[in-house]
Amino acid sequence: MRFGPDIRPAALLDRADKARLRIVLVEDHAILRDGIKVLIDMESDFQVVGDFCRVDESLAGIRDLQPDLVVTDLGLPGRSGIELLAEIRRLAPKARKLVLTAHENEEYIRAALNAGADGYVLKDANSAELMLAIRTVSLGQQFLCKAIASKILSGYLSGDQRPSGAAVAQSITGREREVLTRIALGSSNKLIARELGVSPKTVEKHRSNLMRKLQLHNAAAITTYAIRHGMTGCEPIGSRVAERLLLSLRPLASTG
What we know:
Blueprint: H1 9-17, E1 21-26, H2 30-41, E2 46-52, H3 55-65, E3 69-72, H4 81-91, E4 96-101, H5 106-114, E5 119-122, H6 127-138, E6 143-144, H7 146-158, H8 165-170, H9 174-184, H10 189-196, H11 200-214, H12 219-228, H13 239-248, H14 250-255
Parallel strand pairs: 1-2, 1-3, 3-4, 4-5, 5-6
């Protein structure tokens, strides 16, 4: 029997002696989560050590379990999977991160990769491709399923590097949303700091991150963006009302 360049009998014996790959699964649909868990546990060298349906509850589990790999969806209730990817860097820096999602829009792909994803697989992939993705990512390499690789290559060749839309909104952290809401209401950095129990420098950092992510340049622009996208707890408004609001907030732009 012939073996490929990376699969030799000695290598297979070595793998058998090693501990099973410890995996955490984050998926909000129970039936799908249970099915993926069964598929993973069928592999002799894989083990699902924790499964969660929300970002908030998964954070403590990832911190305590320190898994080798986290497999997560992006569209999760509450906080997004993109935000979870960034949190994993802090909670379990050695853990590899694989996205398993139905989102195939390029902005989601870019946002996930920028947040630290090591692999990206669509949910319509077959089980063999998913297992290959898990093995590839667990070995320290990157993995993109064929459909995603094609989109990334197409975007690269066209020179389109701009994140946009819902993916940009999902990349905003919970704390940044709190700051954004207060900026939209006209609060100063000092007032925001007092309300959130942080320093003014921390608020300024969040403010700078918001401007960078949203590609905005002043408080008035942040406010208009927030209201237009329903990110302040207010109903989204039309462009004419937003323009009038922008005009009324121009003095804030010069001071904030």
